[in-house]
Queue: 2 jobs
Job 1
Amino acid sequence: MTATSQLLGISNAIVDILAHVDQQLIDDLGIVPGSMNLIDEQRAREIYAMMGPATEMSGGSVANTVAGFANLGGDAAYIGRVRDDQFGEVFNHDMRSLGVDVRLAPSTDGAPTARSHILITGDGQRTMNTYLGACTELSVTDITAETIGTPKAVLLEGYVWDCPEGPMLAQKAIDIASERGAAIALSLSDSFCVQRHRDAFEGFVRDGVDIVLADEDEIVALLQTKSFDETLAALDAYDNLFAITRSEKGSVIKHGDQLHTQPATRVDKVVDSTGAGDAYSAGFLFGWVNDYTLADCARLGTWCATTVIQQLGARIERGVLDGFARN
Amino acid sequence: MTATSQLLGISNAIVDILAHVDQQLIDDLGIVPGSMNLIDEQRAREIYAMMGPATEMSGGSVANTVAGFANLGGDAAYIGRVRDDQFGEVFNHDMRSLGVDVRLAPSTDGAPTARSHILITGDGQRTMNTYLGACTELSVTDITAETIGTPKAVLLEGYVWDCPEGPMLAQKAIDIASERGAAIALSLSDSFCVQRHRDAFEGFVRDGVDIVLADEDEIVALLQTKSFDETLAALDAYDNLFAITRSEKGSVIKHGDQLHTQPATRVDKVVDSTGAGDAYSAGFLFGWVNDYTLADCARLGTWCATTVIQQLGARIERGVLDGFARN
């Protein structure tokens, strides 16, 4: 017997450590404002020691999407590796409390649960410094017929490729899931991640991936195009379903000949833009697994993203569907 | 050589685990809305399993006051016990990042760092369920001439009496600190705590304590009076300095013949009332160690409390003094 779910996420399980900081700290650390940086444990200690009082909460890009999908009422499952430490307990608790079926037990040895030190400057920009810890131990042996189950869609994130066995376990997950008729979705994570793994992503998108979730920077990095028009033209060479978010320019859905443009919803005040893309993916995929039209998938993605940027925190909460109506 | 500080706090070092919940959960758990309950590890696991996704941050009543005092620019030190686990690291990091001199090293064995499961209902009320863990191991041997140093004031909280060696270590701290000329302040924590330890607190207030920080419920529980007028009359029998907060009725300072009434500041919207009393104490004590008049101490306490209820989170942040002017 294998576990069923509509959506299975496979990603880096991360606890966020958030603090407001002065721009000076970003400068002193020599990091690019707004970037996501991979750091080792030594650097993590260094940055943490320089940060002010912080707040901790579960994070991770695709983990946010899976949590949002569950909060929309979807049946979700998750594969990601944490250690049996307090942050690991926090991460798994938060997922389980939403009804997400957490498929892996925490590691009893090895590196501690991953943490991302998120430095928030006065302009609301977030600079992430991620120590992958236990995530890097996610292994090919964690991906089995049993842990995959029989989902309608599997969602992988580009960041998984930053783990030593990431490319191999992603391929194995795709093989098992595809054989069982699941669709494969890939979130491109961030443009630097795309640069790190461009050839691998390109190969996966050409062969294996059904749905590509990306923002404009990421898709441009993948296709090495120079403008968005050029990007759209380049997509003609692919038969995947693309959902591309463009911040205040809305989003574009492309699938073969079909092209749908979804405008962004104007909001009075952006409280916190974190998680907008992850929330969009949650809404889009929730629509997709429930056989919404692509236009309605895009509308629900936009609805979720609009909700999340008007609240503190990266995960959409329960009740987000209240007020949403399909066309 | 001993470490100097203006204020030394001795209290239960706690990490808060906060989640929004339905009123139904409070009812199902059979707890009094708005109360602080002491729970064991088994009950802590039970409650955590029933809570939704949560946010973690450093807490603890007097720890909040010490953090606020440091954020006002005061020179602060802290004695409280955490374990060498991730929550312990979070707690000590948050204190140190404010410049607080953390006097004890984390325990290398024993119970995990304390956590309070704070259930926030739709009406903004917070119901606390505290597993004291490592706090209960704070010991008489932790209180030495070296760890006390030479502060201008020592602040204890009533909750310390909930720990097995609490009464003894509090007495030892008072003895060492008094001999060195420090003033002793006691925060009464909550009215249920006062009921648990009334005789001990009464004895300490009569002999040893210089400054009593309390809200109306707590002072009424201590003096077993029936009205606030009766309470004020009863205070004539004490020569301590009392700072009594009364929510929207403001605060009252009483010291022998001196009586000062400080009105509350009207605010448009209370975002989160948590930590109002702790913030008041931070402002009041910052004024006191800096030789403000009692009226100005009360004004700064009110200023800090007014600030903290208009933000999310229980600790006042740096810059809170901007705009405050003494009379």
Job 2
Amino acid sequence: MKKVGVALLGLGTVGGGTYKILTKNRDDIKKNYGVDLEIRHILEKDMSKVKALGANPDIVSCDINNILKDPEIKIVAEFFGGIEPAKSFLVQCLLAGKSIVTANKEMFSQYWHELESAAKKGKAGVYFEASCVGGVPVIRTLTESMQGNNIKCIMGIVNGTTNYILSKMADEGLEYETVLKEAQKLGYAEANPTADVDGYDSMYKLSILSSLAFHTKVPIDKIYREGISNISKLDIEYGKKFGYTLKLLAIGKKENGKIEARVHPAFIPSDHPLAAVKESFNAVHIVGDNVGDIMLYGRGAGDLPTGSAIVSDIVFASLQSKHKYSSFKNNTDKVSDRGFNKDFQCEYYMRLTVKDVPGVIASISAKLAKFKISINSIQQKVEGDKASVIFMLHRTSESSVKKAVEAIKEVDTVYSVDAIIRVEE
Amino acid sequence: MKKVGVALLGLGTVGGGTYKILTKNRDDIKKNYGVDLEIRHILEKDMSKVKALGANPDIVSCDINNILKDPEIKIVAEFFGGIEPAKSFLVQCLLAGKSIVTANKEMFSQYWHELESAAKKGKAGVYFEASCVGGVPVIRTLTESMQGNNIKCIMGIVNGTTNYILSKMADEGLEYETVLKEAQKLGYAEANPTADVDGYDSMYKLSILSSLAFHTKVPIDKIYREGISNISKLDIEYGKKFGYTLKLLAIGKKENGKIEARVHPAFIPSDHPLAAVKESFNAVHIVGDNVGDIMLYGRGAGDLPTGSAIVSDIVFASLQSKHKYSSFKNNTDKVSDRGFNKDFQCEYYMRLTVKDVPGVIASISAKLAKFKISINSIQQKVEGDKASVIFMLHRTSESSVKKAVEAIKEVDTVYSVDAIIRVEE
């Protein structure tokens, strides 16, 4: 039987999950896939983690050289997170001919080209199923199942923390800050929640997913990013009345040869398959020119779900006789703006607070008309001498909306523009 | 660039879709996957199909030898359907070293072992993504993404015709016969609908899917099969009131080392992800010990969705340096009953018509108690001197329910047992 040595960099949540699966499922993997995966070294300084997992302390160290010098180690799985030392260690492993498996979207989305270039030199492989949407096989689907399609759109709920927060806000009518605090208490959100709630995590994943979908590197600086911290429960409630559910979406589209990539909160019709994705579940919706709509759904995080993706990559890598690399030629860190559309188009939801006097709707409508934005519907709710007005706007561009909002703010009967939320059909 | 010759056996719906994709997307596939797929021969006797697609008539014939003798043809995709001549032709191709790609679940589920044995002799590959759930990459997910899991359950809506019929019955309150006729008129159901409505199509697919999920051949004779033709709109309506949606499910489970495989109509909770799968869409829900719940969703049929799966397999096959075979050792046509549990357990919905007299519920309950079946809830609806009674039964075995039903039929205040429907949570 083929025996393959594996090293683990880090024994955190996902590293620990991977350790558990490789240990518990070792015999099944031998029987079903004909490969014996042996953990030969672990980099971890926190020995309490080693002890908690019952790992052999003799194979634990803090020195990457212990891995580099062992010719039996063919695959190195990384769980450090962050850029360094993860990237440098993985480059060294690749140059030494060891394939790598990573869950590190932050590093991978920015240094894919560097890792791939080292991999080619070392004739090793680069695997990253676990970097996006945990155990859901979205990377493998994009690389091994969509070959007969030009993908037009990939749209996903790829961050569990924000989906948990938005679901809770919608279901229990709570404000963002309240739910965030609860999520932090339950361990669903980090003490510093920026990476999740401001959309960075989704942006890293979208960079990887849309690069694969469109066979073109989509670097993070080409991605529009907006988080959920300004979302009010009021907008979620209004949206519900219009038949919409609010989600933080990662969206990649290719239209007329141009790619647009963006992460932001968006209303989707409440009967859209993504609207039913609740709590910390994730899902990715893909539209191909031939396959039509498909959706993949599951747990986007957690020790065992993400560990499942890591182990899948380890088995997959260990059975390749020749590693494949990214299907796009420009896998470099220098990608020009050509080919990207940053002034994308959407429908919009706009909520304003205005003075309750005749003519205010006319004034606002005139400003919208000036920027060629047409109105789908208007809803007004009077409270004292003020009114909340919601405009649902037909498809228009970001730049037009921005200009219109500036012009509307100048109308003297308008107190404030409280929310602008994009609508995806 | 690697050039790979392809032959198509048949130009029906899926064959035609495959032809279209291979022609339209040929340059994209070259660019993105580095392989030039050239259609070198087509077996088709109906020249009107050839003409409609604009295919070159010079490469069309009715003689398999034209394919067998062309060394440039490396991959043969089959769209004949049915057992013969599909199977014999494919065996000949495999022995000649040509890999095969098929959408033919009826043939493949029953002759997998024979094809695989020929494939090993010819050092060729056997690919069948298109045999189950059209363009949804469920086969690739099972073979390439679940390696770190013991799958506990696979449960799917894998037949579009029956899902269309049941969705229509539920949404519009129509009877089975009415919807079936409409579906036949619209081309969603065949003139002879048996393969779909009696669950044969789902059974073939379940045989393939559960064999992969459990790494054990699950032949069709180990699968319990029941169709939807006895479903009444009344039961769909009652189910709705209890919070259930009725679907034709293909279910494979592994519990205590025993496999159960069954195709039948079942109630699932209306908030189950599968309950939202409407019309002709398909979905498969997989539960792994590590990944937890995942679901794949999309179009299960149609020329381009299924063609997408065929082309994916052709590209995948053409890039393998060594073909893999099924991950189970007993891929044979002789599989013993050991390892299978045919007396599976479920919750049940039971509807009866009884005489509206005191004591009838007591008599029925006593019969259920005799077979150790406990009752979850009872609902009664009186109409004249008759009453409709619905029993929701706790988890029990098929054999107990069957015996109980026989005993209940003997109760003189019971007119009829009108429906027994399994309930899956």
